[in-house]
From TrEMBL:
Limits of the DUF1616 domain: 72-175
Protein name: DUF1616 domain-containing protein
Stretches that traverse the bilayer: 64-86, 92-114, 126-147, 153-173
Xref: InterPro entries: DUF1616
N-terminal signal peptide: none
Organism per entry: Ignisphaera aggregans
Keywords associated with the record: Membrane, Transmembrane, Transmembrane helix
Length: 183
């Protein structure tokens, strides 16, 4: 569905393209639709929005980032287990561990704080993700230092995984609420 800012009547994207097709070639029409959506002259709406949060989580178009984060966390934990059994696979652990420590905690925090895509540019999201990770991980380590488990591989991995998944779910819920507001 598309909504023209001047005309508040809802039109399907197909109707909007047919209307524009009377004046130009197909490639020009597609460029116009793209530029109109970028400049906010029209608003493209999903005609079948998710009914509830569970439906939202099940649709890849909305929650692919969440499932990617969850997969990275699980893969990182698996890499830690595998490298204890196969010492030659340590480089996989280095790569995944770096992503899990230096990027993911900040990324999910940024997604929770700024659920709308328009709030930040991708470069701002990347910079804030790395910066927040560099702030969050030492705070988690400091908190772990005062627990009976201390700062060792297993507690740090466990707490970072729990933090990342929990904040990712919170961020996903906030994104769902923002999607509901667009109606």
């Amino acid at each position: 569905m598309s909504r023209d800012r001047k005309d508040t009547r809802l039109k399907t994207l197909e109707e909007y393209v047919k209307e524009l097709s009377k004046t130009g070639k197909q490639l020009d029409v597609l460029k116009r639709v793209y530029s109109d959506s970028i400049s906010k002259k029209i608003v493209l709406l999903d005609p079948s929005l998710p009914r509830d949060f569970i439906d939202y989580l099940g649709r890849g178009a909305y929650s692919l980032w969440l499932w990617t984060v969850a997969t990275l966390v699980v893969t990182t934990i698996a890499a830690i287990v595998i490298t204890s059994l196969i010492p030659g696979a340590i480089y996989i652990r280095y790569v995944l561990g770096s992503i899990a420590v230096l990027f993911l905690p900040g990324y999910v925090t940024v997604e929770a704080l700024y659920p709308r895509e328009e709030d930040l540019t991708p470069l701002e999201r990347l910079a804030l993700s790395i910066g927040l990770s560099l702030a969050i991980v030492p705070l988690i380590g400091l908190a772990l230092n005062y627990t009976p488990w201390g700062i060792r591989l297993t507690p740090v991995t466990t707490v970072l995984a729990i933090y990342t998944i929990a904040v990712a779910i919170i961020a996903s819920y906030r994104k769902y609420l923002e999607l509901q507001k667009t109606l």
